[in-house]
Amino acid sequence: MRVKDWHMKTTALLTTSVPGRPKCSGKVRDIYDLGNNLVIVTTDRISAYDVIMPNGIPDKGRVLTQISLFWFDLLDEAKPNHLVSAALKNLPDDFRTEELDGRFMLCRKCRTVPIECVVRGYLAGSGWAEYQKTQSVCGIVLPSEMKQCQKLPAPIFTPATKAEKGHDENVSIEQAGELVGPDVMTELRDRSIALYSAAAEYAAEHGVIIADTKFEWGYDENDELILIDEILTPDSSRFWPVDEYKSGRNQPSFDKQFVRDYLDKIKFNRRPPAPVLPTEIVQKTRQKYIQAYTTLTGQSFPWA
Q1: 244-277, pLDDT tens digit by residue?
Q2: 197 and 165 in contact (C-beta within 8 Å)?
Q3: I need a surface site. Which of 77, 82, 102, 113 has the fewest CB within 10 A?
């Protein structure tokens, strides 16, 4: 799939600040606590191998936010969720800035389920690495002689424990059930697979293979299990162009794999400090993220 040459943009938003408002920050997001609700702001920071790069990808945060909003609106399986509003007018006055426009979600505060709910439709990444050793992924036995990036007979649910630092750890559904309860785990599995399947069907019809993805769930104020965080974005999923797909090899992608490939090329040791990404890598990565948005939604990117 040909990547369009979008207008070059060099300014990335690496951090946010609202005077008098305390925040906590993750690898990509700045989070402000408003009491019953949270303002979740997606910056343009980018991490690879769990290391945050010193320079970001312009508009990446807006792409991730807008894709999540697209799915929340499109899919019945994505409801109920934590989204309250994405309109500036519904924020307190001190948050209504051009800087935050398009890159925030006002969300209900939830109690997070401590499990990453990963659904795989194709054999890639850590799943492929595990399959080569055991012919299985997270305890799920798969057909023999499968190829790298081959489509699975049916989507599989492969949970992971959420790590405070470093990589999440893949576990079996039984192990995950010991943490949250077997009934909750069954519900998470069924809802995650249904959500992935609906999104994957839509995406394939619009030129994108969603090879795998991860969801996060939480309990709202009524102890109802709802969808939280970003969903089905190039940061939480592997997106491949349908027209370039071929099993048995790595795939072209619409995500940060382009950055990982560059870091591998320069033999980055995967420990801080990370190197500054060259302008060419930044711009091509930005193009890939925007291409994911326009291909999925059929709309032009408002900030391009």
Answers
A1: 999 999 999 988 888 998 999 999 999 999 999 9
A2: no
A3: 77
Q: Give how many domains the chain has, as a whole number.
A: 1
What is the pTM (predicted TM-score) of this model? 0.94
Place of tokens 């060419």: 280
- pLDDT, tens digit, for every residue of 68-80? 999 999 999 999 9
- Examine the pLDDT at 3 and tell me if it is beyond 50: no
CATH code of residue 158: 3.30.470.20
Element (H, E) at 261: helix 257-265
- Residue 1 is predicted with a pLDDT of 35
Specify which residues 85 forms β-bridges with.
106
Of 189, 155, 196, 187, which Cα lies nearest the Cα of 172? 189
What amino acid occupies position 44?
D
**Residue type for position 253:** S
Domain assignment present for 69: no
CA–CA distances in Å: residue 252 to residues 60, 210, 264: 19, 12, 16
- Asked, for residue 143, whether it belongs to a domain, the answer is yes
Bridge partner list, 217: 227
Which residue range(s) make up the domain with 193?
Answer: 112-244
Structure tokens at 29: 């997001």
Beta strands in 86-231 (DSSP E): 104-108, 111-112, 115-122, 136-137, 140-141, 151-157, 160-161, 169-170, 208-219, 225-228
With contact defined as beta carbons under 8 Å apart, do 95 and 34 qualify? no
User: For residue 166, what pLDDT is reported?
Assistant: 56
Cβ pair 158, 233 in contact under 8 A? no
| 222 domain-assigned | yes
**Residue 107 within a domain:** no
Position 155, amino acid:
P
User: Strand, coil or helix: what is 164?
Assistant: coil
